[in-house]
Amino acid sequence: MARIRPQYVCANCGAVSPRWQGRCESCGEWNTLSEEAAASAPAALRSGRGRVVDLAQLAGATPDLPRILTGMAEFDRVTGGGFVPGSAVLVGGDPGIGKSTLLIQVAAALARSGRRVVYISGEEAIGQIRLRAERLGLRDAPVELAAETNVEDILATLEAGRRFDLAIVDSVQTLWTALAESAPGTVTQVRTSAQALVRYAKASGTSVALVGHVTKDGQIAGPRVVEHMVDAVLYFEGDTGLHFRILRTVKNRFGAAAEIGVFEMTDKGLKEVVNPSLLFIGDRNATSPGTAVFAGIEGTRPLLVEVQALVAETALGTPRRAVVGWDPSRLAMILAVLEARCGMRFGTHDVYLNVAGGLRLAEPAADLAVAAAVVSSRAGLATQRESVYFGEVSLSGAVRPVAQTALRLREAERLGFTRAVLPGGSREGVRSTIQLDEITTLADIVAAIAAESAANGRGW
Q1: Which pTM value belongs to this model?
Q2: What residues make up the domain containing 23?
Q3: Phi-psi category of residue 81: left, alpha or beta, with phi > 0 → left and psi -120 to 50 → alpha
Q4: Is 304 within a domain?
C-alpha cells in the first residue's frame, strides 16, 4: 500500500502546498499553513471509469424556489426572501457582536410559525441558551436544543424523526469528525465538518445555518473553501460601542449580494430598524464644516449616510491619514486628485475621515461626498444645508456618473433634502422635484466652496 503523503493547507485562502513554508505563496500570509493528510482518489477515478451524466438544455421551465419566511423583515431582505429549503448559510462576525442572539431570535420566530427548528451549540450549555432565551422573552418558543460537537452525532440526531425545517449550528469551528485526524478548529476539521453538514442539507431539504468566527482582519476563520461550499455568506457587523448592527450579504446564490439589514441592539435583543437612513443622519450638525451627506446604494436599498472629515495642521514630519468606514487607499487618491487637479495642498495637514454610525462604505459613488467633506473642512465652511452628494471621481479630476440615480434621489427627496450635487448627464430620464446641480469636474466643488469662503472673508 502506497504511503499517503501529507500536504499543507493555508488557513487563510485554502491553497494547498506539498511542503511546509513560513509564507503562503497564494495569499502572502505568514504562519497559516497546517499539515493534513492528502485524501486518496476514489476507485472510479483511479481506474479511469465513470458513469455518463444526463445533459439538459439551458432553455426550459424552472419552478420558483420555495422560501421559508422568518417574519423578521430585515433578515428576510438580506437572505433574498427567507431560507431556501436545502440551502446552507454561513454567518460570521466578531465575538460578542450578536450572532447567537440573532439566530436564536430567527429560530424562535420560525418555531412560533409552526416550523420545526433545532439549535445546536458547541460553545454553550443548554442552560446558558435557556438563560439567553429567557432574557430575550423567547422561552415559550418551541425550539429544540442540543449541545454537541461531534458531527456524526449531530447528523444522527438530525436524521432521526420528522425532518427539521432549520438547523442552526453554533459554531463550525467547534465541530470535529472522526473522518479527520486533527484537533477541532483546524483547517481539516472545519472543512470536513462543514462539508458533511452541507451534504446533509442538500440531501434532506433542511436549511442549515452555520456560525463562523472571524479573524483579526474581519474574515471568516478557516479555509476559504468553506465559503465556496455554502449557498450564502452573511457578515454581522457593527461597533460594540454602538447600539446598531448591520447584517450584510457577501454571497447569495438565491438573491442579491451586498444587501444589508439594519438592527438595533437592545436589552430585549435585536430590534429591526425600519428607516436606516434616519439612523445614520439623524444626529448630524449641518452647520459644522467637514460634513457631507452621501446618497448611496447598499444592495437594492438606498441609504443616506453622513461622511465626516477633519483637516488640521500637523506638528509631525509626516502628516497622518486616518480612515474609519472607508478605503484608506481611495482617500489617498482623492487627496492626490485635489492636489494635482484643484491646486489644494495637504502636505502640512492631517486628514481624518469617518463614516458616521460605523457603517462601512465600498461604493465608488462616495468619492464626491468624501471630496466635498474634505474641501469643506479645509476651507472651514459648511456645505450647503439639505444637500446630498454622489459621484465617482477619476484620476483626471472628472466626476463620472453612477448607477441608480433615480433611486438615490427618491430617498433624498423622501427625507426632506432639497438639493443634490451629482455628475453631469445624470438627470437624463430622471424626474425629481429637488434641485439638481450637475458638475463635470472636482474643481467645480472646490471653486464653489472657495467662492463662499471668500465671500465670508476667510482664506484657505
Answers
A1: 0.82
A2: 6-39
A3: left
A4: yes
